[in-house]
TrEMBL record:
The keyword Membrane applies. The gene is yajC. Belongs to the YajC family. PANTHER family: SEC TRANSLOCON ACCESSORY COMPLEX SUBUNIT YAJC (PTHR33909:SF1). It comes from Clostridium estertheticum. One of its GO terms (biological process) is protein transport. GO terms for cellular component: plasma membrane. NCBIfam families: yajC. Keywords: Cell membrane, Membrane, Protein transport, Translocation, Transmembrane, Transmembrane helix, Transport. This is Preprotein translocase subunit YajC. It is found in: Cell membrane.
Length: 96
């Protein structure tokens, strides 16, 4: 009877681990993928490296970002986007 209790405890711990770790991570990944798929030209974004700029061109894997007063253009991987900033309210739409 003692071994059955140990097995049950291990299974219960694995289920709790799955619920606490993997389900929220999958939701976060889906939300981030939706963020990347909904990028549009003229969206203002903040990169994971801290560069803020406006999207001027979107390609399959990359975007062209315009930043700074002298309009410096940066070719950036889509996965480098950290947040999209809503220009109407200056509020962050999506984080991380």
């Amino acid at each position: 009877m003692g071994q059955l209790g140990s097995v049950f405890t291990m299974v219960l711990m694995l289920v709790v681990f799955y619920l606490v770790i993997f389900i929220p991570e999958n939701k976060r990944k889906k939300k981030y993928a939706a963020l990347l798929n909904n990028l549009k030209v003229n969206d203002e974004v903040l990169t994971k490296g801290g560069v803020m700029g406006k999207i001027i061109n979107i390609q399959d894997e990359y975007i062209i970002l315009e930043s700074g007063p002298d309009r410096t253009r940066i070719k950036l991987s889509k996965s480098g986007i950290g947040t999209v900033i809503n220009l109407n309210t200056d509020a962050v739409v999506e984080k991380k």
